[in-house]
Amino acid sequence: YPWPIVKKAHELGLMNSHIPVEYGGAGLGILDACVLIEEIAYGCTGIETAMEGNSLGMAPVILAGNDEQKKRFLGRMIKEPLMCGYCVTEPAAGSDVAGIKTRAVKKGDEYIVNGQKMWITNGGVANWFFLLARTHPDPKAPASKAFTAFAIEADNQGLIRGRKVNFILNRNYKKKLN
C-alpha cells in the first residue's frame, strides 16, 4: 500500500476533500473535487484510487449520518491519514444491492452482522467501513425497507479481512472482507 504517498497527500490537504467544513474538511463541491481527482489520476490512477476510495465510504455518512456519526467518522479523517472502505458488493450479488445476503439482526442495543463482502476498496487498510446489510426479516421486502446502513470500526470483534487480490491497475489494494 502506498502509505508514504497517502501520508504526504493527506498532509497537503489532497485527501477527503468532500468532508464538510463544519467537520474540519475543505467542503469542496463536486466540480472542484473532480478537478483535483482528475489531476492526481493523470499522474497515477492507482494512487488516486487509493486516496479517493475514502469518498465511497464517507459519502453515506456525509449524506445521511447524524451529527454524532459525522463527528466520529469524518472528523478524525482530517486529523490523520486514515482510510475507510465501502462494503456493499458480495460474492453472489455482485453490485446488485437488492441481492445482498449479508444480514444484521438486532440483539439488545447492538446488531449482529453475518455475511461476506468482496472487492472492498481500501479493505485491507481501512480504519472503518460503511456496510450495507439486510435487516428486514422478509426476504421479499422492497429494497427501500429491507436494508440498514452501518459504520463499523475495523477493529470490531468478528470482522475478518480476507485475502489480498491483485489487479493490473491497482496492485496496492486488499479487496476482500469476510
From TrEMBL:
InterPro entries: Acyl-CoA_DH_CS, Acyl-CoA_Oxase/DH_mid-dom, Acyl-CoA_Oxase/DH_mid-dom_sf, AcylCoA_DH/ox_N, AcylCoA_DH/ox_N_sf, AcylCoA_DH/oxidase_NM_dom_sf. Residues 86-162 form the Acyl-CoA oxidase/dehydrogenase middle domain. It holds the Pfam family Acyl-CoA_dh_M. Transmembrane segments: none annotated. One of its GO terms (molecular function) is acyl-CoA dehydrogenase activity. Its cofactor is FAD. It comes from the Eukaryota. Keywords: FAD, Flavoprotein. Residues 1-79 form the Acyl-CoA dehydrogenase/oxidase N-terminal domain. This is Acyl-CoA dehydrogenase. It comes from Rotaria magnacalcarata. The lineage of its organism: Eukaryota, Metazoa, Spiralia, Gnathifera, Rotifera.
